Amino acid sequence: MAYPSTETKGDQSWIGNNRRSWCFCRWHEEYSIRHNSKDIQLFSATSSNRYGIHVDYDSGQLSFYHLCEPIRHLYTFSGTFTEPLHAAFWVNDNGWIKIRRS
Hints:
The protein contains no helices and 6 strands. With 102 residues, the chain is mainly β.
């Protein structure tokens, strides 16, 4: 997730490398949450590749979930949002993404 004012050039433009974006990251078989260039390690490979994001803008909460059975909460950022939030994605050459609305 990112604010529209997030930089678009340089290392600070990477999702999660600044105070204006939050990232659920997968690097090889390791998973983490990243914000303001700080990583929170989560877990290694899982049997499911489905994840969810829930935004409660008024309460200032951005939550990440593993959509397995049962659904597992991964991490919640809490604070005050100062701009609208936008979905932001980066997918490498071998990746793909499917967006579903519940």
